[in-house]
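Subject: Sanity check before I submit

Could someone independently write out the structure tokens for this chain? I want to compare against mine line by line before I put it in a report. The sequence has 287 residues.
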Amino acid sequence: MINKISFEDICPYVRYARRCLIKEKTPTPVANYDNMLVYLLKGKGEFRVEDLTCNLERGDALIIRPGTFYEYTPLVGECTCIFVDFDYTMSQKDIVMPRLSDVIEGFDAGKIVENTLFTDVHIFNTTVHVKRIQLFEEKMIEIVEEFSKKSDYSDMKCGAIMMAMLSDVARRLRLGALETSDNKGLVEEVISYINEHSNEKLTNKIIGELFAIHPNHVNTLVKKKTGYTLHNYLVMRRISKALEMIDKTDLPMCTISERCGFTESKNFIRLFKNTVGTTPHQYRKRK
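---
Independent answer below. Compare away.
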């Protein structure tokens, strides 16, 4: 059963927290039955989360949803990570022992502790990769120590720390926080790069890697600023450039198409007509 929640509904429960020294690659992909927060404390590591590859350095974090298969490999020797298994709402706090991760053949989706779907901060419905969030370090170490002590109110303390960390992630990833020191100018940098490189191959993944943001977040950034998805904004920019070149040069359409970033002339003609209302050749004859 999927539990639909908003970010304001969360009240995290930490089921397990530990520091791990990773010496070798996982032999096979595994998936957790809980949500999992990973923070890289030392070294470098590669995490493959289904079709997403995340290279982590000290200060980088991942949030992986239950039922999502992942594997990790230490890079340049060993790496040290902190892993926290948690749920978002404490609805299953009676389950105090973590359910161990399973390989693909043995995974039982019916055992997932809590299956949530966020109705507002949609990025949490995917794998979240956050770069350079060193403010997590003290909190992650504290949560491991607090979990190990099992002192009075440890559950509350761990939950409060998790709440603070998740709020930090949401604040960084949501566009409303772009004025903070972490995100100041990010939208402008992304749009400026797209404008300057619109004739090149650009995808959510490519831009995400360049600016250390999750690929799924790229569209949100672009749409917030321009009103268009990345694909539609690129089409608009390329068509605008094509119009300029048709007006100012006598270059063949195939050359204009290529220089504006269209890989196929047929695609260029179709998108041009959809945008301008006429074919490129008909537009040139109107000059």
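---
OP: Matches mine. For the report I'm noting this point. The longest strand covers residues 70-87.
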